[in-house]
Amino acid sequence: MTASPLPDHVRPHRVVIVGGGFAGLFAARAFRHRPVEVTVVDRTAHHLFQPLLYQCTTGVLSEGQIAVPLRDVLRHYENVECVVADVVDFDVERREVTALRPLGEPMTLPYDDLIVAAGVQQSYFGHDEFAVYAPGMKTLADALLVRRRIFGAFEMAQTAKDPAEQQRWLTFALVGAGPTGVELAGQIRELATLTLRDEFRHLDPQAARVLLFDGGDAPLKPFGPKLSAKAARSLTALGVELHMGSVVTEVDNEGLEVRDKDGQTTRYEAQTVLWTAGVAAPDLATALAKATGAEQDRAGRLKVLPDLTLTGHPEISVVGDLMSLDKLPGVAEVAMQSGYYAARRVRRQIEERPKPTGPFKYRDLGSAAYIARGRAVMSFGRFGASGLVGWVGWLVVHITFLTSFRNRLGALLTWSLAFSRETRRERAFSMGQVVRGEDMYTARVPGRSET
Q1: Catalytic choice (78, 93, 105, 183)
Q2: What is the DSSP letter of 7?
Q3: What does the alpha-carbon distance between residue 274 and residue 129 come to, in Å, rounded to a whole number?
Q4: pTM, two decimal places
Q5: Where are the alpha helices (DSSP H) in 351-404?
Q6: Which residues contact 196 (CB under 8 A, 6 or more apart)?
Q7: pLDDT 10s digits, 29-52
Q8: Which residues pair with 268 in a beta bridge?
């Protein structure tokens, strides 16, 4: 590593960072120009701006505007190496991470300090069988699959001869009324009532129904009762049908069954069901807990000490969505701050600073959720905003945190066009997997490729 000022015979301090999301990226950046050999290992080769996945799904932004190659982001960090592999196990005695290369071959990554920032995955609350019918929204692949489901549904509705079949294609059910569910529900209605309104000759896209289900009593409940109520009114004005106090009990290829707060079960015919509720820790969290004896919370996240390390293992930090500490929310700001804090703590130890790093303190920078053009809600401490003011605040926050200047400029130009003319140019999709297990054309004609 050419950036290290140490003599050739001295091995630099080795830090392995598991995960290239916000927490991992901010941790890696904190080691720049330090005598540290950093390895960032992730299952993908890109850093993803997850808060804008729904805009990629609904054709506002392209994949390249919300994802950037990790190697490109870290190209000026000469002491950082990026590795594409899937971490599966830990040997804490030997201080080694075991990972699988994309074709399954194992590899070992030794470390002196380990920062685990692997993030979380979609949770189906014990009903993993729902996943094949109701995709989640955690990865770029998820977003592209959901894009096919949404736009493909309108195409299928266009040629449906049976009115019942057409309405089933035009019904979209979303499970979970957190930020992702609210944002996606609002965008589907805006898509149907504005973007696609005049594009079909024998179909009225405005007839599309968007059903939003949640077990709580209001959408965006963490934003507080006032902003939650305003979000509910905005969604209702858009035409989103809110079903609060509802628990999904069954999902299949043609709809879902829901139990309301009175215990009554109702069947809803919906060809497109999307899952935007709940998160759970990945398998590597269990592997790390087994290796270290660390405790896990109900979602499988690892309980950490105030300095974000595991009990008895000061060389292992867990940050971002994967850590469980003081009921901190799983948002990008927590990931960024915790990743930077963990790296700074390791840095101070390496440099033998006399004053140790204090406990992690989270600075709440606020939360924002986009509903539709000119409509958003934003909370910052005691301050709350909605409508146009909230929307402007949402724009500022997301432009600020997009990873690179190219992404910020591209998103700003795209938003200017999309919001002024309601033009969505990123709508390319294939008909594969519009319905689970069906590749449409190729599934019916052996040997025929998709055109």
Answers
A1: 183
A2: -
A3: 14
A4: 0.88
A5: 387-401
A6: 154, 205
A7: 999 989 899 999 999 999 998 988
A8: 256
